[in-house]
Design goal:
Elements (H helix, E strand, L loop, with lengths): L27 H6 L5 H17 L9 H12 L1
Amino acid sequence: MTAIESPCILVCSVDMKTGYCFGCGRTRDEIAGWIGMTPEMRREVMAVLPARLETVERRPRRETRRTRMARERGVAG
């Protein structure tokens, strides 16, 4: 069995503005259908991902626990 090439970087959250994953740039439909795509179809999608990722808002939508803790340490320390 061969491995299926994937752009996934395990940052699985979709930008609600663009509909693209913050990590890989795919849409939900592309992510869900990835396993059923032919290698050619996957290459076609992967070719457009860099341009898509340029349109994704990179800031977190909400403050993460890590960010909050760092901020609190900075204020207290």
